[in-house]
Design goal:
Elements: H1 20-24, H2 34-43, E1 45-49, E2 54-56, E3 64-70, E4 73-78, E5 84-90, E6 95-96, H3 98-103, E7 110-113, E8 117-123, H4 124-133, H5 135-175
Antiparallel strand pairs: 1-8, 2-7, 3-6, 3-8, 4-5, 4-7
Helix pairs in contact: 4-5
Length: 176
């Protein structure tokens, strides 16, 4: 799939399966038992993305999330005026796309590779299989996602507060 394509295509696995040791190094899979890591290593597929390749588009439906194993991706958000703005740059061990897996809504942003990247694709089917395999591990992953979403919200709140104060200061200065 190339940038500017109208829709993302389903991705096919292109790499050897992950190892439990590789998963252990990723915060999303923190505190999982060895047997669970082995189960996930067998089920999670990896894909590659070339620079400029769109992983998914804002507004698409999605039932999969990705973990950056190698490389770098950018997350962009379209404003009401139609302007795309980079909101995050993600590298190894970062993950994205988790919102649509949890809330089953359309993608909230576009994600594009900015460097040659290798990604682990974790689908809602993988989540369901994990739920059936080990409920505690499923809960730990959901908790790890919630912790990261909370961290991101705290950062965004700080940025928004700084922005509001700067706009207000400029407005007051213009009125003087």
């Amino acid at each position: 799939m190339v940038a500017n394509a109208p829709k993302s295509a389903p991705r096919e696995p292109r790499d050897a399966p992950l190892t439990p040791a590789a998963l252990r190094e990723i915060g999303l899979f923190g505190a999982l038992a060895e047997d669970v890591l082995e189960h996930l290593a067998r089920s999670i597929k990896t894909v590659r993305a070339t620079p400029g390749e769109t992983i998914f588009h804002e507004g698409e439906s999605g039932r999969e999330m990705f973990v950056v194993l190698d490389g770098e991706v950018e997350v962009t958000k379209r404003s009401r005026r139609g302007r795309d703005t980079r909101v995050a740059l993600l590298g190894p061990a970062d993950w994205f796309g988790e919102m649509s897996v949890l809330d089953m809504q359309a993608r909230s942003a576009t994600v594009r590779a900015v460097a040659p990247s290798r990604l682990a694709r974790f689908t809602s089917e993988d989540m369901d299989a994990l739920y059936r395999f080990d409920l505690k591990s499923y809960a730990l992953i959901v908790l790890n996602i919630a912790r990261d979403l909370s961290r991101r919200l705290r950062v965004t709140d700080g940025i928004l507060a700084d922005f509001a104060v700067n706009v207000l200061d400029e407005y007051v200065a213009m009125k003087r």
